[in-house]
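User: I'm putting together a teaching handout on how sequence relates to shape, and I'd like one worked example. Could you take Copper amine oxidase-like N-terminal domain-containing protein from Siminovitchia terrae, show the sequence you're using, and then write out its predicted structure as tokens right after it?

Assistant: Happy to. First the sequence, then the structure tokens directly below it.
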Amino acid sequence: MTKRIIRFSLFLAFVIGCILFIQWKGYHSVEDAAVLNIEQTFTIRHTQDEFVIKQSIENLPEGKYHIHYPPKAKDIDCQLGEDHVCKWEDGKNSQLKVKEGPLTFTYKLKAPMKVNSFLLEDWGITIKEAPSASTRIQLTEQNWRNGSWATGADLAGKEKMEGLDYYVFKAEGLIPPLFWQEQALVPMEMNQHLTIYSEGKPSLKRSIFEKLVPDEKIFVIMSNNISELTETDKLIFVPGGKKNVEKQLASLLLAKKLSFTDEKEWMLDLLVSSLTHTPAHSNKVEKMRETIFSVLTKEQADRWLENILSTDSKTITSQLLDELLEDTAGIKTDFFQKNADMSKPFQPFYFLDKRKIYINGKKADKINILLQNDRTYISFVPLIEMLGFHVLDSSKPKELMIGKNGDKYHFIFSKKLFFKNGQQFGFQRNPFSMDHNEVYFDTAALKGLFDLEVEENSQEINIH
């Protein structure tokens, strides 16, 4: 009895192993399709009222595949190898077992008789297990010869022949849509990943779009036949004669290229307006843009934008914008972080001076220097503590009382005056500034207040 059980168990294990091997082999073959160099060639012939299409697929590994047809395809024929009719695994002609190729389909799609422009989408047969391939499209046009074809692929060749026009496009990945219009379309390569088709010279600043390099190839069709900005896979349609198209296209390309946090809306507004040198939509963002361009030189501003566009960071944040300012111009600031909340008022631009600070010969590690336009501010409370003062009263948020050697000072941060031992004195202009609830004091007023001199060089600041 025991021997029978053992023999049966071994037999069962053998059968299961065979089944698993067969399943793995089929799965493994199909999985390899994603990494193999699968190539397909489309030959499209446009006659009076239809597109006659031949699709040949090479390098498909052995395996079972699920076939998806264009919804309106008709007269479909399938051949495997040189002259073998495809043998389908189901009654719907949607599952096919491939041993060796090539796999060739022929089919037809209806074409309109007369149009000003035409978009042909979902026109190629696709394989579920191998959706991507190196694609070559050879299109012969016999009917609409007064216009131009374009697609989301590189134009490898175009020739006007007797009786027909001939186009060759090359693409990687998914099958791109095809677009035709009556007016001639001329391709212009903005950079290695961005090509713009237009009716003559596009009304776009080339310098802007030379900088916007998408991660993968994108093709733009700019035409007066297009009413609004839309997109399909790798193909963007842009109205030719409308205002703000440049900003809309730049915004779309930036959103494709960069990833943002929840601050996406205002950061896109900032970057697009900075690239196009046009006002931002938001008043606060426009103040931010104007401030940055007033602080940075043109070369620094260009380099800052280039660093943003080429950053390795996965997400653009307000902190990153500040950090790239430091990398670009040596300016340490939290300007964008302070202004990230659009519900709060605009905060002016300060940046931290990275030089060493000495007070009466002693290094001051806890003191910050902020620079704003032509004014230099120093951390006030740490400064007076190093000068030997002590805080008498700080209970009111916008006032401060300090003392030293019997002298008492009372400062009101919102006013150009202070009290010393009860007697009122004034400043020429208010020397106080607040940043993150920290009080800063204009170093230009230190001489009049505490009889202090400020000396500085490229490495350090000395106050004595």
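A couple of points you could highlight for students: The chain has a mean pLDDT of 88. The longest strand covers residues 164-173.
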